[in-house]
Hints:
Elements: H1 4-11, H2 19-23, H3 26-33, H4 39-48, H5 50-58, E1 69-74, E2 77-82, E3 85-86, H6 88-94, E4 105-110, E5 116-120, H7 121-137, E6 145-148, H8 155-165, E7 169-172, H9 179-189, E8 193-197, E9 200-202, E10 205-207, H10 209-217, E11 225-229, E12 243-245, H11 246-250, E13 262-263, E14 267-273, E15 281-286, H12 287-300, E16 309-312, H13 319-332, E17 335-339, H14 350-358, E18 362-365, H15 367-376, H16 379-382, E19 391-394, H17 401-411, E20 418-420, E21 432-433, E22 447-448, E23 454-457, E24 469-473, E25 483-484, H18 488-496, E26 503-511, E27 517-522, E28 526-529, E29 532-535, H19 536-544, E30 549-559, E31 563-572, H20 580-593, E32 602-605, H21 619-627, H22 641-645
Parallel strand pairs: 4-17, 6-7, 6-8, 7-14, 8-11, 11-12, 16-17, 16-18, 18-19, 19-20, 31-32
Antiparallel strand pairs: 1-2, 3-13, 4-5, 9-10, 14-15, 15-25, 21-22, 23-24, 24-26, 26-27, 28-29, 30-31
The chain binds 5'-O-[(S)-ethoxy(hydroxy)phosphoryl]adenosine.
The site of 5'-O-[(S)-ethoxy(hydroxy)phosphoryl]adenosine has 23 residues, from α13, β26 and β27.
Amino acid sequence: xxxxxxxxxxxxxxxxxxxxxxxxxxxxxxxxxxxxxxxxxxxxxxxxxxxxxxxxxxxxxxxxxxxxxxxxxxxxxxxxxxxxxxxxxxxxxxxxxxxxxxxxxxxxxxxxxxxxxxxxxxxxxxxxxxxxxxxxxxxxxxxxxxxxxxxxxxxxxxxxxxxxxxxxxxxxxxxxxxxxxxxxxxxxxxxxxxxxxxxxxxxxxxxxxxxxxxxxxxxxxxxxxxxxxxxxxxxxxxxxxxxxxxxxxxxxxxxxxxxxxxxxxxxxxxxxxxxxxxxxxxxxxxxxxxxxxxxxxxxxxxxxxxxxxxxxxxxxxxxxxxxxxxxxxxxxxxxxxxxxxxxxxxxxxxxxxxxxxxxxxxxxxxxxxxxxxxxxxxxxxxxxxxxxxxxxxxxxxxxxxxxxxxxxxxxxxxxxxxxxxxxxxxxxxxxxxxxxxxxxxxxxxxxxxxxxxxxxxxxxxxxxxxxxxxxxxxxxxxxxxxxxxxxxxxxxxxxxxxxxxxxxxxxxxxxxxxxxxxxxxxxxxxxxxxxxxxxxxxxxxxxxxxxxxxxxxxxxxxxxxxxxxxxxxxxxxxxxxxxxxxxxxxxxxxxxxxxxxxxxxxxxxxxxxxxxxxxxxxxxxxxxxxxxxxxxxxxxxxxxxxxxxxxxxx
Length: 650
Ligand code: WTA
């Protein structure tokens, strides 16, 4: 007998949202307003006239001064809403406090140890204003860079909004990265001020972020001030003249602060992401277009209404959190849940308890979390009343149909459509996604969002009918990144030159007979570990920076929960011998250099790595070996015997 899942895959069954959900959805109402009767009709109309679509949505936000043009497109450079004066914080906060929304809760925050804090829009507005005034007092001006190295505590969105309010550019560094990664990013952006915390909780332990960052602060020459939030109460050393407590600097600040009117195209933030080289890329997003893109998608894809409780269970240190925990939900004026800790701490009840406790109605998470909870079993969600949920979301990596079905059945009780949204740090907003009015196929990200022309092409750029190829985007979109910070050439080379004028995503995908997109993973040397982008080159350079290591090759190995895990092969310098202790030391070293998320799950010591005759490490062969695939023709290698030896590391 076929299992339910096999039957489903064979039938290619479609799942449709309920009539009720469709009828009342924001997208349905939006279309009705324009006399559009089906989603296909909208796609057609928006494709023919993208500027109409984005103009209408941009008008739903407040502009200090109207824009003159919706789009100027000089591939690969786009300007959106040119001539407009705008500030994302005006839209996220200032305008709400003039309405009934001022007393609405913006964030329900839960600490890992159980503490709960609620901030209304009014509270948040005042705190942001005080911090913005404090930053101004420290000499931070429009265009200055501020590094924010904070965990999931309320001061993180407050700090981001405070920067944006005064026109400073924030660069958030994920708190799971370690001090060296922070230093590299802070130096690239030449930050004037940095903001961190004494410590925070992760799985019951205190992570001492300030102590950790102390190691590198003297090596960030541009840094004038370090602001420290008191959170875990861990002991810290405050350097006089440089380090200041958050509480002390905001204490006497005015609760009002004028928001800086920005040009639409002024930078809002830099967010570093992994590329194919060891050097992270500083993705730059701007105020106007970014705001319009993320607002539109949250409204139409996740269908948020005033009565919803939204929980995007990502970390703000990544783009998902920037777009869909901080900016878009605040622009929409909804109530969001923000949780500090691990979703399964102290036990697998935690995630479901939070949904039940706060009556979360729309929930957005990553497949790795779903797979983790699948492993724990459905008895955990079953113990809780999850009936408040009406819509679910997935992001960050391909969701396998089995995990999709589990999420659909055991979390959504077969009532909640799953929005499997494809996008990237660079795209800023969801680009290929279902909507609450589209039919779903488990594992597919459905279709490009209105106006987005996506395609799958071969190495020459020709569209592929069947099978996998490069996923490309052929049209500009408002929240696209504008450049790579201080590296405009890399912006062009890495994304727009393989197929001139066309955006190369770096992913492999296929399109089925119904025009549905299926993402198959990365085409380049970027790993996706538990939804986090990690570059193999970065891990390799961390490994070879350890004095015992001569060479290192890092590849991804498929993993049932994390999607991929980091697998490394290492050769040692003369005089060093393989040992379990050395493995441990290497893992610790990578943790310190990049962060715990980059620590290799597997380290194999070998005498030699497979290489071409010109001495290049053949990662393709190592990858095939690790995955158990056919390694192909290896006769051209300089040392084919090294391939088999990968099976028997020292
Ligand atoms: C992957 C996260 C399959 C993809 C928003 C992309 C996905 C990378 C999906 C970007 C999805 C993201 N299905 N794969 N729904 N969403 N990805 O920059 O490989 O952290 O290139 O942005 O995640 O990761 P990033």
